[in-house]
Amino acid sequence: MKRFLSASVCALALVFVAGNGLRAEPILPKDVKWTYNWAPGAPAVTGDGNPAAGVTFTNEPTGDAIGDSDIVATNLRVFSAAPGATPDNITAGNYKLVLNVTTKDATDTTVTRALTFTGQLKGAFSKDNSNITNVFGPDVTQEAVLGAYTFRVTLTSYTPPGPPNQSNAGSISAHVTLSPVHGVPEPSSILLSCLGGLSCVGAAWRRKYRARV
């Protein structure tokens, strides 16, 4: 019995020593700091047969966020010199938006993942009006694992651009949700597992001891 108690004490000591090397209080997803940067695959989608008309995409500066957040991917503006009676047209304005997400893992090492989204613009526009529709591609929702967290990114909204003389731009936005990576045990889970293992060893030892008596 004394040998079992000594072994248990030693095992518990090792567990607590190991636990000191782990993060006692893991950062919750809502408190994770991360950085993002969007870049369009091309600066503009041009009109059918007219490179002097089209829709431009802004290359937004790098931004910072904490936890779940809505973020703006790009702003959209039309450019055209055509009169309203004979507008320019876009029939297959395919585009790409690349998102780079950066955060730090448990060892304080910077990790970055890139996600590429697609979509298509269609419609008619001129110097006097704008009627541009958008359809997001099949990759509208994507996930990336960075450290101990899964980043789930979904393109959620499209605001169409107005005529060229409008001061407010159109936009494409996304929503980012963070969650812990499944299968990564927290220190408390490791401790409980070790204690459970010690209980099983103790039960087996007691059965063996009683059988001898």
Topology:
Layout: H1 2-20, E1 33-40, E2 44-47, E3 50-57, E4 63-66, E5 69-79, E6 88-104, E7 110-125, E8 130-136, E9 141-146, E10 149-159, E11 170-180, H2 187-212
Antiparallel strand pairs: 1-4, 1-6, 2-3, 3-5, 5-11, 6-7, 7-8, 9-10, 10-11
What do these coordinates show?
The chain is an alpha+beta fold and 213 residues long. It has helices spanning 2-20, 187-212; strands at residues 33-40, 44-47, 50-57, 63-66, 69-79, 88-104, 110-125, 130-136, 141-146, 149-159, 170-180. The strands form two sheets. A six-stranded antiparallel β-sheet has the order 2-3-5-11-10-9, with no helix packed on it. The chain starts with a helix and ends with a helix.
- Unreliable spans are 4-24, 184-192
Question: Count the strands?
Answer: 11
Instruction: Report helical residue fraction.
Output: 10-25%
Question: What proportion of the residues form beta strands (DSSP E)?
Answer: over 45%
Q: Trace the largest sheet across and list its strands.
A: 2-3-5-11-10-9
- Termini distance? 13 Å
Total domain units: 2
User: What is the overall pLDDT average?
Assistant: 84
* Secondary-structure element order, N to C: HEEEEEEEEEEEH
The dominant shape is: elongated
Q: How many DSSP helices?
A: 2
Largest sheet: 6 strands, antiparallel
Computed CA radius of gyration, to the nearest angstrom: 28 Å
Alpha-beta content class: alpha+beta
